[in-house]
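Predict the 3D structure for this chain.
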Amino acid sequence: MITYDLIKEAEFSPDRHVEKILGDVAEGDVTVACWEPGQISPNHCHPDAVEMYYCIEGGGTMRTPDGEVAITPGSVVAHPPGEMHEYENGPERSLLFRVRYGGDKDARLKEWPSNPEFQRRDIDNVYFGD
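Done. Predicted structure below.
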């Protein structure tokens, strides 16, 4: 058995959201994700892994090519391998618990409009055919 205290593990930054991997479990990892108001993730996917989020406190909006859904405390969202998604935090701090499992858990970043310093890596350009 492995246990974590997500409140004690939380770390926030005004510069960008913080994803703190707490540990590896079998073919996955578990993370506490901490968001300040208005922070936005890159539009990305995990080609070979499932990514699941559980909202502990706060909330925002999760977007996929199929639409968007409000994330509130108690919400769970699961992204199958390869599904593009972007999270925009709401008006208060948010604490999310994330689980990724499957093959390569690395993200492929398509774009990050809220980050003017973002530049795609070569692996992202190859994945998206650019």
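The beta strands are 18-25, 28-35, 43-45, 49-57, 60-64, 67-71, 76-79, 86-89, 94-102, 108-111.
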